[in-house]
Amino acid sequence: MTLHSRISDPHTDFFTDNKSSDSVQIWSPQITSFIASQVAKHRPMVLVTSGGTIVPLENNTVRFLDNFSAGTRGACSAEHFIRNGYAVIFLHRQFSLLPYSRHYSHSTHCFLDFMDLDDDGHGGLQTVILGQYEEEMRSVLKDYKRAKQENLLLVVSFITVAEYLFLLRDIAQCMAPLGSNALLYLAAAVSDFHLPPEKMSVHKIQSQGGRCLTLHLEPVPKFLTRLVKHWAPQAMIVSFKLETEERLLIPKCRNALKRYGHQLVIGNLLDRRKNEVILVQQDSESWIRVKDGELEDKLVTEVIGRHKRWAVKMKSSI
Amino acid sequence: MTLHSRISDPHTDFFTDNKSSDSVQIWSPQITSFIASQVAKHRPMVLVTSGGTIVPLENNTVRFLDNFSAGTRGACSAEHFIRNGYAVIFLHRQFSLLPYSRHYSHSTHCFLDFMDLDDDGHGGLQTVILGQYEEEMRSVLKDYKRAKQENLLLVVSFITVAEYLFLLRDIAQCMAPLGSNALLYLAAAVSDFHLPPEKMSVHKIQSQGGRCLTLHLEPVPKFLTRLVKHWAPQAMIVSFKLETEERLLIPKCRNALKRYGHQLVIGNLLDRRKNEVILVQQDSESWIRVKDGELEDKLVTEVIGRHKRWAVKMKSSI
């Protein structure tokens, strides 16, 4: 594996070179109407991005590069934002964890294990929730139904890194009129490298006779600059930084803040991500740590506090 | 993207170079006891593999290569095998679809949408299944409970291609004593290329200053040869071939049969995989096509028919 020092052409425009696919067209009407209805209710709004983005190696995609992320951080955070009065656009990788259903998703908590067949009182059987799980499931279901009924959650999905960036641009631009009431909480694991469309194989790459495969990947443009400066310049923007080496974590968070000029970087280490995160701002660094339970409860409360102060500051500076 | 013609050293032993991780050790006792209990009941047994295998690019894995597969074919087929009297070892990629829960998995059929809160008769609320979905859910739950109670399903998971191959070897060898009563139905999408451990980066690859990334991947050894000849030489072996180009499908299936000398290749095209498959054997080719409904119903019935004939032939040849 080698990193080449050829710097990619800064004038190359990702949004010109890549087709937007149909994603934006499909989702745009729902996004627009969801945002409009929140504005009418003066609700604060957050875009939560979640899950990994893929980089297809073929047009008819069989193989792809991916980034590790089950979507736990995002799905969990979205619930806490809703509980705290926010409307949430949840932009997630298809099939990654979703708010509410995440409690019973995946192999570890199969919802069928929480159910039983019981006498229906008419000589037949009916499906019931097992007594010991009823209370928790009722509480999750209640929150889920409230989010749906009060129109507090819009779920939007992407697969590729190109779809992600096009949708992010579209949503951020739609949210821009909310000014500082908008929060962007970018928890998705976005690929740093991609294969430009013209280099992609149309069909499945054939593995003939035990030959090796060499892939030349190009850097994905750093979209945060545009987001901060042009797409939603008044919104508070929170990015995430995942590292595996402790010594790199804080310097990388500081670099990101300096480079993009946004408001907050949340840093975490791969093997301790469920127990600690660091919040890095221009003039502060603070850790949030939990032993058990959901770190996102504390994290989202803290982020909301900072968002409120940001909004006050922005409004007073007009 | 380039394919190099350097042929990898055929003597390189994947199983020596790659650590088996802890997967085999963790799963082995369950696998052994599951197989023993089926043998005692003279049940036919199938190993169904399902989902894509990943190729990590780093030891502390943030980035990886993957193969497209939600695991629908495998999860669906496993149910049909159980319905037809087989015991199933379901070797699947972690978080890919599972038998039974697949009916309510992923974003499209969130099980919370099938539930409601109702008066519990004591002034409180209880969770109930909505009337219109009750019958189907009851039927899925019944089948799931039967599979568990009668010990017809063992669910084993892998993530990387190395874990997959080590588990496949272990399970196949454990199943070998079943002779021709064993069926191997290899629906997992196994990576053709991998990054040998010594070439892997220990930590997350850094994306410094917009540089390009070049990956040199080596071929994954064709494990089918060993499976057919050494691991489970009496078992009937069914492999899958996914292509995106129609003209390549049948020739590639024929090549695989010739190369590995196993019994059946099931070929399918990416964009029509839910509606048609072709069964290629030494002396026959036949399509199975459905307009709607589950293709796996017909497919599994057909495969079981061939497995029975195989077993009769093998037993009469002793």
Automatic annotation (TrEMBL), chains A, B:
The keyword Ligase applies. One of its GO terms (molecular function) is ligase activity. It holds the Pfam family DFP. One of its GO terms (biological process) is coenzyme A biosynthetic process. InterPro entries: CoaB-like_sf (IPR035929), DNA/pantothenate-metab_flavo_C (IPR007085). Residues 174-302 form the DNA/pantothenate metabolism flavoprotein C-terminal domain. Gene3D superfamilies: CoaB-like (3.40.50.10300). Keywords: Ligase. It comes from the Eukaryota. Belongs to the PPC synthetase family. PANTHER family: CORNICHON-RELATED (PTHR12290). This is Phosphopantothenate--cysteine ligase CAB2. It comes from Neolecta irregularis (strain DAH-3).
